[in-house]
Amino acid sequence: MAVSTGRPRRVVIVGGSISGLFHGVYLKRHGSDVVILEQDPKTIRSSHNAGIAIGPAALEFLAKYDDTGVQSCIPGVRTRLAYRQNLYWKDTNITKHLTSWGLLYRILRANFDGLTSEAVPQPPKPRESDGKAEYRAGKRATGLWYHDGVVTVQFVGEDGKEDRITADLVLGADGLHSTVKTLLAQATAKEYSGYVSWRGTINESELSPKTAEYFANRTVLGFYERNYFVCYPIPPDSGSFAPGTRLINWVWYWNMDESYELDQVLTDIHGYKHSNTVPSGLINPEIWKKHLANTVPSLSPTFAELLLKTENPFVTKVNDAICERATYHDGHVILVGDALSTFRPHFALATEQAAKHCLALGKVWDGETTLEQWEKEAIIWATKIRLGSRTMGAGHVRGWGEFFGAAWESLVFMVRAQLGWA
Ligand SMILES: Cc1cc2nc3c(=O)[nH]c(=O)nc-3n(C[C@H](O)[C@H](O)[C@H](O)COP(=O)(O)OP(=O)(O)OC[C@H]3O[C@@H](n4cnc5c(N)ncnc54)[C@H](O)[C@@H]3O)c2cc1C
């Protein structure tokens, strides 16, 4: 059962991506001493320049805790819908604030442990109330034990050496394939959606002026037969926002059951079959060429230009997953961000979820609410978004049968949540 723990003094966070850094910055700003363990050995990490959306909680977080003064996103980008050859099907008032994983990572690192980067050449000085902050790159968590209010985390470095660290609180911010979750023996409902996302970015200056203008200042959703695109402008990792220097990020949801064909897509240029993502630069060019040859003739020339000019796209199986519990060991171990719940990305809410978890946990540490209440609300919100995202994906990629099933499940859950039965 979750227990309210008060503000923790020593914290270890497993996972140094967006969720780990939101929580790390928050806790450090409130005086905790924080160590982040991140398995990736690179300090300046690459995001393949791919894009993320920033919602109200992430904006609130940055307004309160970001001292860099650096522009974090392209604000208020409107959404246009395109249907097959009709590029101007509908302009909507739906807006999103858009950025890249790499830029947000650099801003959060500058605040957390003063990392200098092209995006943040002069990191801010610590605030007087700050605790200590340490980002240990190339450290993979491998073990976790709890005894009498103290959590011990075992980790292994790049040199293969094992070490241990203790804390009052450990946050598992280690994503969809969370090691912390596995070490807690937490069962997870994880499922392949039946489709993949092909993704890529291209500098707007490399597109023809007409195509660049079409994509440069809006999010475009382009719908085709059981596949659809989401395209939007983002800053590169360096944080440049000047027109002509930004990137157009595209995501193309493509229907593909578990099959020999999917195995081929996931097999890289070295013959290695990836379980989830084939990173940029490793996709077998023959597979990509064949895919384009089969599909480009049915696309509008404007979308086709994006694909044909993109170098090094990458591909990911779209999964979702959710845990039944977020808190363990009397509240001394907590799962946050994608480790607790990963959505299909249709509503672009993963970063928002991470910020929401962090701000709401702050209220627990301030004594305004309990950890039980935090956990309940986090799981209800995640379930709503997870089921809504499934409905969206099923409707546009998988077909009517799955759409009605997903919509029904979503509706039933919303009613149960409304009645307090969820
Ligand atoms: C390099 C990178 C680029 C991304 N780019 C995009 C993007 O462009 N668009 C988008 O929508 N989402 C992107 N994501 C995913 C996005 O960050 C998340 O969906 C969201 O922000 C919430 O993430 P998270 O921090 O909970 O989990 P994740 O972002 O998945 O981060 C988990 C982190 O934990 C680390 N980790 C895992 N296991 C261990 C272990 N045993 N020990 C130590 N560390 C461990 C991983 O290396 C990773 O850094 C990216 C993630 C990464 C890591």
Describe this structure in words.
The chain contains 11 helices and 19 strands. The longest helix has 28 residues, at 371-398. Helix content is 33%, strand content 31%. With 422 residues, it is an alpha+beta fold. It is globular. The strands form 3 sheets. Strands 3, 4, 5, 11, 12, 13, 14, 15, 16 and 19 form a 10-stranded mixed β-sheet that branches. It binds flavin-adenine dinucleotide (FAD). Residues 14-20, 37-40, 45, 47, 50-52, 101, 140-141, 173-176, 179, 337-339, 345, 350-351, 354 line the site of flavin-adenine dinucleotide. The site of flavin-adenine dinucleotide (FAD) has 31 residues, from helix 1, strand 2, strand 3, strand 7 and helix 9.
Keywords:
11 helices; single chain; six-stranded mixed sheet; binds flavin-adenine dinucleotide; 422 residues; globular
Q: Averaging pLDDT over every residue, what do you get?
A: 95
- Which small-molecule ligands are present, each listed once? flavin-adenine dinucleotide
Per DSSP, the total helix count is 11
Using only C-alpha atoms, the radius of gyration works out to: 22 Å
Poorly predicted runs are none
Number of strands: 19
Q: List SSEs in N-to-C order.
A: EHEEHEEHEEEEEHEHEEEHEHHEEEEHHH
Distance, first to last CA: 18 Å
Helix content: 25-40%
Based on secondary structure, the structural category is alpha+beta
Strand content range: 25-35%
Strand count, sense and barrel status of the largest sheet are: 10 strands, mixed
InterPro entries: DHP_3-monooxygenase, DhpH_subs-bd, FAD/NAD-bd_sf
Pfam family, one: FAD_binding-like
Protein name: 2,6-dihydroxypyridine 3-monooxygenase substrate binding domain-containing protein
